[in-house]
Amino acid sequence: MVHLGRRRHQPELVVDESNALTQTSAPTRRAKSGPPLRDEKLKQRRAETRTGYIFLLPWLLGFILLTAGPMISSLYLSFTNYNLFEAPKWIGFENYTKLFQDERFLQSVKVTLTYVVFGTPAKLIAALAIAMLLNSKRRGRGFYRSAFYVPSLIGASVSVAIVWKAMFGDAGPVDQILSFFGIGLGGWVGNPNMTMPMMVLLTVWQFGAPMIIFLAGLKQVPAEMYEAAEMDGAGPVRKFLSITLPLLSPVIFFNLLMETIHAFQIFASAFIISNGTGGPAGSTMFYTLYLYLRGFGDFRMGYASAMAWLLLIVIGIITLIFFKTSNNWVHYSGDEK
Amino acid sequence: MTSTALKTPAAGTAPAEPAARDPKSRTILGRSLKTLLFHGVTLALVIVVLYPAVWMVSSSFKPSSEIVGNAAIWSENFSLNNFVKAMDGIGGVSTLQFFGNSLILAIGSVIGVVLSSTVTAYAFTRINFPGRKLFFTLMIVTLLLPFHVVIIPQYIIFQQLGLVDTFIPLLLGKFLGAEAFFVFLMVQFMRNLPRELDEAARIDGAGHVRIFRSIMLPLMKPSIITASIFAFIWSWNDFLGPLLYLNSPEKYPLPLALRLFVDQTQSSDYGAMIAMSVLALLPVLLFFLIFQRHIVEGVSTQGLKG
To answer: Among A305, A104, A261, A233, which Cα is nearest to B305's?
Structure first.
């Protein structure tokens, strides 16, 4: 769909540019003495521009007032001491240098990175594995797909966080089931070593959305390719490595990028499960939770802004790395997406 | 591809091979065995994946004493007591009120998102004006922007305007197309609509407003439905926004009310807490049952998150 759209759009873009060219070079010479047709055209272009901006106005307002403006002011605030009640006081890089001596900040970085590094790949592997399992013309496929998608739909909600906490609590159902198999671990919620696995399980549980995207990608892989490989004696592993993975790489790229960016921003579940404290022992002190506590608990808005900008920079760098390295492992072949 | 190249020596004998090599998939028995195995494995997975959701629903009917430390789904003592208690609400505010607040926010979001994203997408796809490409690029960049970068200044702005503890900070962004995902969704869809239609209308003398209203909007129906569903669900589940902006319990939507519930009951009344969690998810699950096809399509073609 994306591809088709771009292709059909292409000729129109070319037309745009040629229009713009004739428009900027010709009218200056001919505007006064030229035929009335030219004047008419110029007027039309102006009206078109005006209409364009009228249609764009809501978005433009939102962009300036709610995105660009706040971004610039949070950059400014990150160099100040500001508590919402007194005027911001410029302190240079102090917030940034203080961050790296702040134990709780460093803890939040550690917690968040652990979560991203373990949770995202695990989620995507689960998504791909189950997408491949479902990628057949068997009956019931639609039902299974919907069933696996349900956690993605509700997983980030407060309700599920409450249920997760109850399930992984002391003598909760999870502990009971595990004990039945002889691997009783006690309650996960109160154990600083077990809260991270619990949070990772919560994100892996929501593999349904990337799974559906993988399924759409798998549908594009021509069956003849597998048949040809089978004739040549390729086994399932070989077929997976040489056909499925390369052809799916654009979809893997998309999922990996989106899920990684998303994982950095986990908030509600961590907030509910730890009751807004990040405990026990700071084991659920996620980056955004600490940012919230600093900004809206202690009203250290400057400090929290510095945190926000660091997050933006890190996400920006990761996005850049993804795009730069994508040439080496993402294959955009022929008519693929 | 590479595997084909690698095994060229064998290629000569290839045509005869598949039948000989893979006889079990040729027989009916083999095939139905495979199907059986597929359904067995997949069903087992479905049970594991849906267990937390099923446990949640079943717990909401159990007495509190049977919830903690009970992995079983079935109970002899199922009753509606928890729901009766959950409907009482918390902090002097009834649950119906929380529902109402959630509903106002969700419906407001849907209206705002649909209006702003269709209008913006029309500007991006159907009108030629200088600066269009630049703004389009900026819109794409905001797709990847973490929300947390802007929350502090946004809060300061709304605080200074005296709009904290109103719904306006939660809805304004939706009316101004600040959720770029929806704009992107509409742009993708609009690009695939044939231009001949609006060109014909232009020749007949219709202006952009007319074309947008009478030609584009009706054709956009599928993507408007998709956007509405996701705007509704996202608003319904949103926690951070209401947490930042709403202070008085009578304005709380369900997720915030739930948090209040957790704070005040602290495991003493697990039953009512879980019942309220179920109630809070009910509309989302209902939406999913009704609009399944649209949701799955939205995810697979646009990469929308659930």
So the answer is: A261
Q: Is this complex scored with an ipTM above 0.95? A: no
Distance from CA of A103 to the nearest CA of B (A): 21
B199 and B230 assigned to the same domain: yes
Q: What is the pLDDT of residues A70-88, one digit of tens each?
A: 999 999 999 999 998 899 9
B264 touches chain A (CB under 8 A): no
Tell me the per-residue pLDDT of B34-45, one tens digit each, with 9 for 90 and over. Answer: 889 999 999 999
Range of the domain at B293: 87-302
Is B72 in the same domain as B98?
no
> Is the pLDDT at B6 greater than 80, yes or no?
no
Residue A230, token pair as written in the block: 């089978």
Q: For the whole model, what pTM was predicted?
A: 0.85
Give how far Cα A293 sits from Cα of A112, A302, A323, Å.
Answer: 15, 13, 33
Q: Mutate which of B300, B302, B304 to test chain A, going by most A C-beta atoms within 10 A? A: B300
Q: How far apart (Å, rounded) are the C-alpha atoms in residues B208 and A48?
A: 9
* Long-range contacts at A276-280 (CB < 8 A, ≥ 24 apart): A278/A104, A278/A108, A280/A190, A280/A191, A280/A192, A280/A195
B8 within domain boundaries: no
Mutate to test the interface with A, among B75, B90, B145, B149 (most CBs of A within 10 A): B149
The domain boundary, picked from B57, B79, B101, lies at B79
CB contact under 8 A, B10 and A232: yes
Q: Which residues in A lie closer than 8 A to residue B244 (C-beta atoms)?
A: 296
Q: Which of B70, B119, B152 sits opposite A305 (nearest CB)?
A: B152
Q: Give yes or no: residues B176 and B248 share one domain.
A: yes
Chosen domain end from B79, B107, B130: B79
Instruction: Give the closest residue to A190 by CA, choosing from A176, A171, A163, A177.
Output: A171
Closest CB to B10: pick one of A176, A212, A233.
A233
Query: Measured between beta carbons, which residues in chain A are less than 8 angstroms from residue B135?
Result: 56, 59-60, 63
